[in-house]
Amino acid sequence: MNAADTAFVLISAALVMFMTPGLALFYAGLVRAKNVLSSIMHSFFMLALATVLWVIVCYSLSFGTDIGGIIGGLNFAFLNGVGMEGNGPVSNIPHLAFMIFQCMFAVITPALISGAFAERITFRGFALFSGLWLIFVYSPMCHWVWGGGWMAKMGALDFAGGAVVHMSSGAAALAAAMVLGPRKGHGQQAFIPHNLPMTLTGMGILWFGWFGFNAGSALAANGLAANAFVTTHVATAAACLSWLVVEKLHAGKPTTLGAASGALAGLVAITPAAGFVTPMAALAIGAVAGVVCFGGVLMKNHLRYDDALDVVGIHGVGGTWGALATGLFACKAVNEAGNNGLFYGNPGQLWIQFVSVLATWVFCFGVSWVLFKLVDVTVGLRASAEDEVKGLDVSQHSEAGYQQLS
Predict the structure, then answer these.
(1) Where are the alpha helices (DSSP H) in 193-278?
(2) N or C, which end of the chain has less CB nearby within 10 Å?
(3) What pTM value is reported for the model?
């Protein structure tokens, strides 16, 4: 084992953990004042629920002994055999370090979905769905890509979670919007963010934490981590600028919300590619991400679904573009564990990426739809019209984020 690598991965795990409170602030600023605590609670609660499920069963389902390329066995259930030795998926760090790093990914992914059903879901419905989703959607996806499952064997490249985190949450978000239906008054009144400084603060925390997300996925303090760090920052900056340009052309003025959304689009898009592409490729990936995710957000208005905080348009569309872009720009000189992409003479990698994208969307949307329906008929998903008007802070938690609303 390597002490520097261990320290680097533990610090990266802490950075990824910090992303979830950052997401809480990002989302909370975008909802109306009467739902600010409810939105924060969705992310904060996942720090507890996902962690407990992860150590009991989800880590084992994700990284346990492969069963038919579909799911991991239960050999690591309750962290059996997961200790301080380097006997995990990578030998240069303690098994526990790898486990807790991956745990933080499992925490934030269902929290991402919460942006789609913000302002209209019961807390009990959210809690039950999130637990089931971690077991039946996230764990299989994680195993397919990172645990030795069929996508890994096929050669799909996903450095830090384009499919596992972003496409999966985007597909679930689309299912949520379709099953729950729109918020009361959707299409008839404007739902204006109540605190954009809060959203910008959350975005700053996300940008900071994402260096642990992507660079930490090198699982060693080495050149690959440095490349992932640089590509992450470059793509994010490029996407922020390209979103603002498109927004100025479309709406007449660049906005702070546009800057935050563009940066997030760049972070999402570079995630699957960060350890497989060069910084100049990252510049192109980010620039395109700002444009396609801006279009993805506009798409909901034409298709008339209420994805409250644009999870589909940014995470779903951005993750899809990032996965396909990996098939274009992947360069084996950056990461010998990967293959070259189309622009480096290997068109087959782009096809593999396309297959992985299609499978991810079909599986995650389909199972999420079933889980939402199951939860709806058991404990109920949708808050009553009265509770929705009152606000979820009061109706679900008997609290108010601001004194004048109490």
Answers:
(1) 196-215, 223-251, 256-270
(2) C
(3) 0.96
